[in-house]
Amino acid sequence: MLKRIISGIRGIGHRVIDSTWRLGYAARFFILVLLKSTTSLRRFGLVIRELYFTGVLSLIIILVSGLFVGMVLGLQGYETLQKFGSESAVGTLVALSLVRELGPVVAALLFASRAGSAITAEIGLMKATEQLSAMGMMAVDPVARVVAPRFWAGVISMPFLAAMFSVMGVFGGYLVTVVFIGVDEGLFWSQMQNNVDFRIDIANGVIKSFFFGIAVAAIAVFEGYDAPPTAEGVSGATTRTVVTSSLAILGLDFILTAFMFRGIS
Amino acid sequence: MPPETLIEVKNLSFSYGSRSILKGVSMTMSRGKVVAIMGGSGSGKTTLLRLIGGTVTPSAGYVKFDNHVVHELNRDALFKLRRKMGMLFQFGALFTDLSVFDNVAFQMREHTDLPESMIRDLVLMKLNAVGLRGAHHLMPGELSGGMARRVALARSIALDPTLIMYDEPFTGLDPISLSVIGSLIRRLTDALGTTAIVVTHDVQESLKIVDYVYFIADGVIAAEGTPKEVSQTVKPFVHQFVHGEIDGPVPFHYPAVAYHSDLQLEDRLA
Ligand SMILES: Nc1ncnc2c1ncn2[C@@H]1O[C@H](COP(=O)(O)OP(=O)(O)O)[C@@H](O)[C@H]1O
Ligand SMILES: [Mg+2]
Fold first, then answer.
1. B73 part of a folded domain
2. In what order do the strands lie in the sheet with B5-16?
3. Among B20, B21, B48, which residue has the most ligand 1 atoms within 8 Å of its CB, making it the best to mutate?
């Protein structure tokens, strides 16, 4: 009995040490990527190429989801607001929910599962098929040539994707409330303009998505680079990317929101 | 070391963690020769190539390449040295996101300031040497195994290296592709005046093209010699390897306790 308890405790300790070690290893890798980013900046074409794969290919899913989320927000908001006779505020509700929260968060979650997993799988596969070793033997640093451009492409495309998501969402809200339900169009837009602040709402939303971009891209490239060079290894790493970055996005969102909107009445 | 020696490996030892893979390997390779390294799976052949390329560091001994001790070089000098080495990985390791042309052009673009028109000519020359000039626009996924290996071969000679290392270049190829790769290795080595190391299991094919053979077993050089000496040898290990015999110095059975005690015969009889 005592033996079992001891070995249980030992198991927990082992896991804690393991994950702490891995976290430190990931942090070191992150710094390494930053240090080796000069090639990406000097040869920006490398980043542009990856921007196409990470950014443009995620665009469709982001646009479609944004539209639907906006439409649902419009419906739900209208239902509730009309009970208080303030259905004209539905534009404000839709816009604020999107630029403050749903735009950055949902876009980042979608980005993690579409682009983040693809980055992990690609780098992991390059490792498993010895492409990274081959590059090293050709005197080209794979962290500088393969990892850093993908990281920066993720960081750069995230804010744009989040902005697109919000724009589509507002459009979806407009479609549902103004075009289908018949809320006054002038009120919808003017209420929105009066109540959405550029610095407090939009800028903070962009800052959020920028941090989410860093988190997702860093996790995706790390998991890919660290994946065991086998088929199971790569598929496991891909799953971990989606799970870990989703948790990171939601955790970061809470922290950032607490800093940004505390004390705003 | 004498001027005709390109590589000197001396008492080289290496271990992954507590598992020692190489235990004091010594060999010399002369310029312009094709040298084969043979040994069973997991005997440390790829590791030996990695040590020569300086991607791992020995625990004792050294590799001297062109009069430089590889593991003592700093990063920049090591990268400079690696430009003199081409390596053909086991399954080609072509960059899957680049076309055949861009794969061969990769090092030229990374390491030289050659104008694109000259890179084009050079790439087509290299591809022509392996017979695949017409395939320059294909992606690696569209190539057969033998073609991919040939493209990788063209890529490894892109910068006219002094040494080309081939890691199991014959694995998984049909007999025709296999002879093609074999004769390409010999022809390119002679035409470019390079030195080649061929790691292989394929005894019959490689004995046709190499100048000298080393056998690795249990982390040491178990035997060495010219192809002629090797095929006539009476050393049991080499004989078993060359003729593919099932049992011999390399046992068929994984080490185990005695058969009758594993079946608990004594207990049952008692
Ligand atoms: N990165 C590594 N970490 C730990 N052990 C390894 C690693 N790479 C190879 N090994 C082990 O080292 C031994 C020699 O490997 P290798 O040189 O690839 O053999 P070979 O190429 O002769 O088949 C193998 O048993 C292999 O399992
Ligand atoms: Mg090997």
1. yes
2. B19-30, B5-16, B60-65, B68-69
3. B21
Alpha helices in chain B (DSSP H): 45-53, 75-82, 100-111, 116-129, 145-156, 175-192, 203-209, 227-232, 236-243, 259-262, 265-269
Give whole-number Cα distances, B119 to B98, B103, B110, B192, in Å.
Answer: 16, 12, 11, 18
CA-nearest residue, atom 24 of ligand 1:
B42
DSSP β-ladder status, B195-200 and B163-167? parallel
**pLDDT band per the 50, 70, 90 thresholds, residue A34:** very high
> Is there a domain that residue B46 lies in?
yes
Q: Is the CB of B16 under 6 A from ligand 1?
A: yes
Whether the CB of B200 sits within 6 Å of ligand 1: no
CA dihedral B215, B219, B222, B225 (to 10 degrees): 40
* Closest CA relative to residue A171, chosen from A57, A95, A60, A61: A95
From the list A125, A133, A145, the residue facing B89 with the nearest CB is A133
Nearest CA-CA distance, residue A129 and chain B, Å: 6
Q: Tell whether B12 is covered by a domain.
A: yes
Please tell me which residue of chain A has the smallest CA distance to B110. Answer: A140
A43 to chain B, minimum CA–CA distance in Å?
Answer: 11
For the segment A74-133, what is each residue's pLDDT rounded down to a tens digit? 999 999 998 888 888 888 999 999 999 999 999 999 999 999 999 999 999 999 999 999
CB–CB of A173/A81 below 8 Å? no
* Nearest in space to A110 (alpha carbons), one of A48, A172, A68, A151: A68
* CATH number of the domain within which B29 lies: 3.40.50.300
CA distance B33 to B25: 19
Count: domains in chain B: 1
**What range does the domain containing B19 cover?**
5-84+194-269
pLDDT mean for each 10 residues of chain B (270 residues)? 84 90 91 90 90 91 91 89 88 91 93 91 91 91 89 90 91 83 88 90 83 90 87 74 72 77 72
On whether residue B201 sits in a domain, the answer given is yes
How far apart (Å, rounded) are the C-alpha atoms in residues A158 and A169? 16
Q: Do A133 and B110 touch (CB under 8 A)?
A: no
ipTM surpassing 0.85: no
Q: Say how far apart CA B136 and CA A219 lie, in whole Å.
A: 36
Q: For ligand 1, say whether the CB of B54 is within 6 Å of any of its atoms.
A: no
Q: Which residue has the tokens 């002369």?
A: B30
Tell me what pLDDT residue A265 has.
44
